[in-house]
Predict the structure.
Amino acid sequence: MNDAAILDLPDDPILLKQMIVQRDAAIEQIKREAAEQIEAMQQRHKAEMAAILRRFYGPRSEASDAVAFVWSGCRARCAGRSQLG
C-alpha cells in the first residue's frame, strides 16, 4: 500500500473492521466466481475432447475396440520377438 492509500483509511477501528469484513467477503466472492469459471471451462474442455475423440475414433464402443486392437498388436509383436530370440 502506498502512503496516500494509508492516509485515506479511517481512524475509527470499527470502520476499519467493517472495511476488512467487506474486503474479505469480496475476496471470497471472487474465489467462488473463479472456481465456477474454472469448473465451466473444465466441463467445456472435457466435452470438446470427447467430441474430438468421437470424430477420430468413432462412437465410444468403437474407441475401446481401437485401444484393444492396438494393445493386441503390441502383444503379438512382443510374442513374436520372444519366439525369435
